[in-house]
Amino acid sequence: MTTATLKSGAVRQVNGKKTLSFALLSAVLTYFVYIFFTFDIGGLGQRASLENARTLVADSYSYKTHITKSNRGAGTLTAAIEGEKKGRYPEGSYPEWVESDGTDAFVTLRDNSVVELSGKVVYYDVPDYGPIIVTTRNSGIDLELPTAEIPDFISASRNRVAITVPGGRINVTKAKTEIFRYFTGWEMFFFTLDSPFYGKSPAQLAYLASSAPRIDPNRSNLALMWDGFWNNAMWRHSDVAWAIFETILMAFLGTIGAALIALPLAFLSAQNFTKNMVARFSMRRIFDFLRGVDGLIWTIILSRAFGPGPLTGALAILLTDTGTFGKMFSETLENVDDKQIEGIRSTGAIPIQRYRFGVIPQITPVFISQVLYNLESNTRSATIIGAIVGGGIGLLLTQAIITGKDWEEVTYYIVLIVLMVMMMDTISGWLRGKLIGNKDS
Amino acid sequence: MSPSALDTRASYLAQTHRKRLYSGVMLVLLVAMLCSGFITADERNAGGFWNGLPHVLDFPAEVLGEAAQKITLLPAHLVAFFPSLVETLNIAAAATLAGAIAAVFLALLSTRGLARWPRMIPVFRRISDIMRAIPEIVIALVLIFILGGGPVPAMIAIAFHTVGALGKLFSEVTENADLRPVEGLASVGAGWMQRMWLGVIPQVSPNFISYALLRFEINIRASAILGFVGAGGIGYDLRNAISWGQGKYDEAAAIFILLFLAIVAVDQLSGLLRNTLVGDTK
């Protein structure tokens, strides 16, 4: 072979590879263009709700307190965090930025401007704009403005006036007048309003916990504090902890249960242990079937029989994973080294001893590392399955998302889920290192 | 036998016994945890395990019965739901593709010796960990709230998780890559992109593609599940077919069949492809 032929061959090869990579690249591009049109990504802008996105982001790190004045009857004034029953201030008491005698009030907004509620009249001197007077009458709502034109931040009709300013929002309808003031943070994360510890600084809390006299004579302050936190009606910490535990439980039961069931069955489907073709073939088809019928379908079938709850989720994971493990273990078994089994056999060992001392030690590392890997990935699956079967943190998450307003809770759950999965990842990596002694995780 | 050999033997036996004892205790502990776990889960479940067990086959029987009655409609259903199946597959494929491409960069950026900015390696590793830890459903549900139902939220959600999952696997591959081609390219003045594209990618692409195919199989299942919670595709049809009950189980049966066949077919195909790519190792 001359250099010329070698060179032309090399050039041809390089050119071929070049063409191939360009062809691949253009195929990928074409596919994305196709996806762009079938999924109508161009039209996404119209379908997307920026309003929802804004609520979501704002709500995830801030909260609002509603000051509500009824425009009917006695015209009482109430204050409630997020407007929820659980966050309502006791009758007659208000946050310190509200000055009220029970019906009329001065409400200070975030930019220190003051809204005056008196009878059925709302008086608000908007900074950089001028005074607004809103009067509710039986015939409708009257709006008096300093300018002839209605500015952008006010939307008004006969039945409703809404004023949005940087310091908050004012909503007037015939039934009630509402003022919203926004705050940064997660409201009442530790203690609700009815707790004696609400609004205390960490230093005050430390003092109360350590040396202050007992608030409840029957319990230490620390116990009372824990009770207030743990049974917090707004955030339900104890329920959330249970849900996390349930999710991990589902993953644990499903994975370990599947591994214990799959191990003996894998012997039946491994060529070198089961000479019976029929048994082997049918066992393999069972594994394929368990894997092929997706976890989703198992979940549906099982939840019809067992009802919602963690057991259903655990069984769904167990069924799918039995298929996965069965296939994996039988492949591992087919690759075991015969020499060790021969060695054990030469000492006169019966089959069960041969398996115990010749086979099990060989497959243990693969077995353990697979099980631990699946345990971690099943924690994630358990979150999803929980959303379908109604158990664990998945259920809480979907419930919070469906209401579409408790985004601070959604954020809380997401943080917990991520921490949970990372913790399981760390634990399984650590266990793998301990049990089989390699640190490739 | 010399005394020292006897000592060795005795201490070896003692060690083995101790080891076995530990393993035994561990096993007993594991089984105990398993049992108590099952009991706890059973108590928290709406229907008990033993009450439900005889009814496990009720629902499949009902579905099969209804499907058998309307067996003539089945081909029509299969055709009718085929577009949804294609949508589910498309969600998975687009998410895998986009996720894999991003994962390649993430993996290269978090590999010692290859990273563009070596100091940022821990940052990229953390990013990969966090992306991997977020279950698809979380992102999907939040995005459905913002973008409305349909395939796009599911696609983004799956792609996001795929970046993290593949990023880790890919970085394990690139860590074992041969650095000589990279050094050779560096010596002739190649830029980072050129070094990666010409020096690293050709070595690792069979493994990359193999892992991506494996992910694709997983993502099809994920895409079906996300459809069930509100994103588009065959999962959504399935929920409608089974939750509106009454006379729609024949449709459910058709969807089961389609989903089963698609999953098995993709598993087989990707298994074949992977074997030709990386040889019969796995």
Task: Tell me what you see in this structure.
The complex is a heterodimer of chains A (441) and B (282). Chain A has 441 residues and is α+β, with helices and mostly antiparallel strands. Chain A has three domains: 63-184, no CATH class; 200-234, no CATH class; 237-436, MetI-like (MetI-like fold). Chain A is 56% helix and 16% strand. Chain A has helices at residues 3-38, 44-47, 50-61, 202-210, 221-230, 237-269, 277-292, 295-306, 310-334, 338-346, 351-389, 392-403, 407-436, and strands at residues 62-70, 77-81, 98-100, 105-108, 114-118, 121-126, 130-137, 140-144, 154-156, 160-165, 168-173, 176-184. In chain A, a hairpin with a 2-residue loop joins strand 7 and strand 8. In chain A, helix 6 (237-269) crosses helix 12 (392-403) and helix 12 runs antiparallel to helix 13. Chain A is elongated, with a radius of gyration of 33 Å. The mean pLDDT of chain A is 84. Chain B is mostly helical. Chain B has two domains: 3-56; 60-278, MetI-like fold (Orthogonal Bundle). Chain B is built from eleven helices and no strands. In chain B, helix 7 crosses helix 9 and helix 10 (234-243) packs antiparallel against helix 11. Chain B is flat, with a radius of gyration of 26 Å. At the A-B interface, helix 1, helix 3, helix 6, helix 7 and helix 8 of A face helix 1, helix 3, helix 4, helix 5 and helix 6 of B.
